[in-house]
Amino acid sequence: MTFTILTDTTIRTLLHTLTPTTARTLASILSHALSQYTLSQESIYQPHRTSIVRPNGQVSLFMPATTPTSVGVKIVGVAPSTPAPASAGAEGGGKGTPQPGLRSVLTICDERGQAVGVLNAAELTAFRTALGSMLLLLHRKRVGNVLVFGAGKQAEWHVRLAILLRPDGVKKVTFVNRSRRRAAELVARLKAEGVGGGGVDMVVFEDGEEGLKELVQGTDVLFCTTPSTEPLFPAEWVMEKEMRGKGKYVAAIGSYRLDMREIDPRLLEAVVNSSGPFSGKVHQEWVVVDSVKGCMDEAGELVAAGLKPEHMVEVGRMDELREEKSVQQWLEEGFVVYKSVGVGIMDIAIGRALMELAMEKGVGMHLEDF
Fold first, then answer.
1. What confidence tens digit (pLDDT) does each residue in 26-83 have?
2. Which of 171, 191, 362, 367 has its CA 20 to 30 A from that of 330?
3. Which InterPro entries match (predicted)?
């Protein structure tokens, strides 16, 4: 059994050179994994996540997962926000050296427990999360104007994949970020790499609140990729009378604790209200999620809105549900909200797919005797 090692550099190279066809194949692989999670009751075979906080502030997250053919665990290390002082005899006079904020590694075994791969999971995690958001974006009729809150890895991959998978549709991408400099650097890097081929206008938002309101109201797609503890925009902006009937796709993946909320809870309350401002022939009273249990445990805005499991539908069920014409129409034109907190099988599905892609392209390290 071949054992594969993929470094962060190798994974970045694989992902940055994806063709639209390969990207769609990866989307299909992820969709199938999430369908198995929901429809084949794979959720009952998923171990609980565990986090450990050391006295020095170091946080370690352990995220195990199983599938019928694989067992894996992703380990994420979050360094202390302020480095511990160096010992008296250490070089550097006790100043210490700041450590990287986050590192992660994914180990994958086959169904017998035989290790088959180790992957640096930093880029992989951002990619698989963004790819999850794309599963519903692929159904949207209007994706011309895209608004992105954030300028980190998640924001980058949401934009890369939206343009790669919907090259015929995305015309303009606007980044909203507290650090305009960081957003400008991301825009410059994407342009330098030829993302969008010059046919997509990428800009950094620089106006005030009134300008942001107009931007939110006029956009087709909103990607929320920040660990915000306050809503990124008030619900009223998209609930005003003149806005009713105007569909949008909102994907929120940045918040992951109960004290975080990217989306105004009042907006979520309205989305699931059968007689609310979004009700009509092109509306379903659901919030689409990757995992109902995960979101009930970790999605602050959903909990703050008082949403119950019956208000949510897992994305793994959508292929089955959209056979009904009204659901398909809602996915194409309605007001759709997708919330993700991450599911371990997403890492395994994409990790194994990247291992196979690396073998095809002859990159990475491959050991025949491990």
1. 999 999 999 999 999 898 999 998 989 999 988 899 999 999 999 999 999 987 764 4
2. 171
3. NAD(P)-bd_dom_sf (IPR036291), ODC_Mu_crystall (IPR003462), ODC_N (IPR023401)
